[in-house]
Write a structure and sequence with these properties.
Layout: E1 3-8, H1 10-18, H2 30-33, E2 35-40, E3 51-54, E4 58-62, E5 65-70, H3 73-88, E6 92-93, E7 102-118, H4 119-123, E8 148-164, E9 175-183, H5 193-202
Parallel strand pairs: 3-6, 3-7, 4-7
Antiparallel strand pairs: 1-2, 2-9, 4-5, 7-8, 8-9
Helix pairs in contact: 3-5
Length: 211
């Protein structure tokens, strides 16, 4: 995989650059928060592939561990949207028993992390702008007890991978030729699925059967 394309909406970038607050992401809406990343093998000839097959369920991965295969309404919508868009790109859907040129995997990825925040350090010692002399204590400094809190973040992403089954080699390795990743707010909202899939393919102009 030699080329990576990262797309983030112009509004989101302007929101990040133009904000002077500690929480600039509070100023962007859900659509602007999403990031669409695609990565592909620049040596692959996408026009050489003609057929594809796609998984019938979605892998659910928690902290790098496969926990289940699922087919929720959201999962079914993703699979249907990928099928439709692959057809628009000129590929023919076949059963996996019919030796497809490409195999499509779909995964929901979740990562949970825990951290610690020091409240005085985060907000700054604004009380220090008043000289202790004001209170009748010249030469004194300020001290403040340390307060710490913990937080936990659970981040999710949708991953779609295209695998080269046509040229699977004698070394018994299947090469990935394309990857699409969606991150941000509303990633797992079913109504957003068509936009996710179209955004990934729209920025992958090379991914089509007829070029």
């Amino acid at each position: 995989m030699k080329n990576i394309f990262l797309t983030i909406s112009a509004a989101a970038v302007m929101g990040l650059l133009g904000s002077c607050t500690k929480e600039p992401l509070n100023n962007i809406n859900e659509d602007e928060s999403r990031i669409y990343i695609t990565n592909y093998d620049s040596t692959a000839s996408f026009s050489a592939y003609k057929t594809f097959s796609i998984v019938d369920s979605v892998s659910v991965i928690n902290n790098n561990q496969l926990t289940q295969k699922a087919i929720t309404d959201y999962d079914a919508a993703v699979i249907a949207a990928v099928k439709a868009r692959m057809g628009q790109q000129g590929y023919t859907l076949v059963n996996k028993s019919q030796d497809p040129d490409l195999g499509i995997n779909v995964s929901r990825i979740y990562n949970t992390s825990t951290g610690i925040v020091s409240y005085p350090d985060y907000w700054g010692a604004y009380y220090g702008y008043w000289d202790p002399f004001y209170w009748g204590y010249p030469g004194y400094g300020y001290g403040f007890p340390a307060y710490y809190g913990t937080y936990q973040i659970r981040e999710g992403a949708l991953s779609i991978d295209a695998l080269d089954l046509k040229d699977a080699g004698a070394d018994k390795k299947i090469k990935g030729v394309w990857m699409g990743l969606v991150r941000g707010s509303g990633v797992f909202r079913t109504a957003n699925v068509p936009g996710h899939i179209n955004s990934l393919f729209d920025q992958s102009g090379y991914f089509k059967a007829n070029q």
